[in-house]
Amino acid sequence: MQPEFEFFSLECDMEDFHPVGNGPHGNRATVIFKGGRFEGPKLKGTILPGGGDWEIVADDSTAVSAILACWIALTRQFLDTRYNLKTDDGAIIYLRTTGVRKGPKDILDKLGEDESITADQYSMRLSLQFECGTDKYAWLNKTVGFAVSGRNGTMVIYDAYALV
């Protein structure tokens, strides 16, 4: 059986990052989500304020770019986000994502500050887990989701897919 992918998009505005520092799990930073929107064939609504991202940053200066045949400093950021989604018909959906954003350190250090940085300059991939107690959206509780994501200034943008 061939898998099908259903799509929804998500755009969320964020506050500034707050560096926590180098703790027992790594160099952590947090950010709170201000709100946003999501839309797809089966889902549409708003992102409620108050979710956030609790990321850990790992620098890897030993990575080599075979294409350029030179040493470059790479950064991996381990993402751990939580959203409260409110559908247009009033249902609340809890969305948790985990994943990795990786790319050249100088690019990732400027995310959110330099709007000329585009999503093709780094990689951001996420797994999605949903929880919902409303019958209409109970199918989300059994959904395997993933997203290709990026940033545009203070906005995080997902192209999300559900494996059906």
From TrEMBL:
Q: Which InterPro entries match?
A: UPF0311
Short name of any one Pfam family annotated for the protein: DUF3237
Q: Could you tell me which Gene3D superfamilies the record lists for this protein?
A: 2.40.160.20
Q: What is this protein called?
A: DUF3237 domain-containing protein
